[in-house]
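Case 342 in the screening queue. Each case pairs one protein sequence with one candidate compound; here the compound is zinc ion. For every case the pipeline is the same: read the inputs, emit a complex structure as tokens, and attach any notable structural observations.

Predict complex for case 342.
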Amino acid sequence: MKAVLFYEHGGPEVLRYEDFPTPEPGPEDVLIQVKAAALNRLDLFVRQGWPGLKLAYPHIPGADAAGVVVAVGERVQDVAPGDRVVVNPTLSCGHCEFCMRGEDQLCADFRLLGEHVRGSYAEYLAVPARNVVKVPDGFPFEEAAAAGLVYVTAWHSLVTLGHVRPGETVLVVGAGGGVNTAYIQIAKLAGATVYVVGSSAEKLERARALGADVLIDRSQEDWSRAVFLKTNKRGVDIVVDNVGQATWFGSIRALRKGGRMLVVGNTSGPKFDLDIRYIFAKHLNIIGSTMGSRSDFATVMGLVFAGKLRSIVDTVMPLSQARAAHERLASQEHFGKIVLVP
Ligand SMILES: [Zn+2]
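Case 342 output:
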């Protein structure tokens, strides 16, 4: 099969489009002919590498995929060749204490497709049958693939852990990333008022089109002060921050007393010097989250398939153009997801 792979860490130039052996499905696996693979910022981090990251080279990046099942292992019963499926990228053992209670994102053997094992930038992909959800006929593969990681991440943190409720205020820090387009829509679906901080008027207008109620352009004003003033000096109930280092202080400042801070990423860097008096004096709840359970995945994908939540696709490119796709993602010029098609 053709695949995008790399033999060493580095910039987009390390990505190669080459032949690689088609994976063999194990007894509990399905083999999928990939019809669409979506990019995530994680793919850039994995390509660049970080201390402690150990990959089996050549590595194939990619956490998100949708496609058609072409073969199943001997113990697979509820998925058959010909089924259209989307892949849940959280791989878990299925039998540890956390998996047994349905919290496979906490699995002792948690692995992420495209990070700990070879991923979806390929013509074929083998994953456990329990990691696929069927895609309705007629629903585009590109939109299914684009939804997976960002929607399970947003649903698990905002709904399952964050308990967002109707009438609450939710601040999403960042407008253009795929995960932020998911947070805006889920918060609206839950009946919240959504504040969005963005870097340009154009991205904020697109956030408004997704339902965002209050737009704050961080290139024009001190955004956390603006949130404070626009909430009558109260602050918001929930902040979603996947930016990290550059925005943590502003996010804490923008929260009301007793507010919830959802920490779901660190695109600007991981280190931040925190005065812990802010935590106890403001009674803050700091909630860390990554990925979600199989139940979260099935629930939120059902809402995507029903049209309650939209998958925002920025660009669709051939798989062979993965390097250009990575460059576009790194440029921050995109709005929504970049999708590769084999
Ligand atoms: Zn487990």
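Case 342 observations:
- The mean pLDDT is 95.
- DSSP finds ten helices and 17 strands in the chain.
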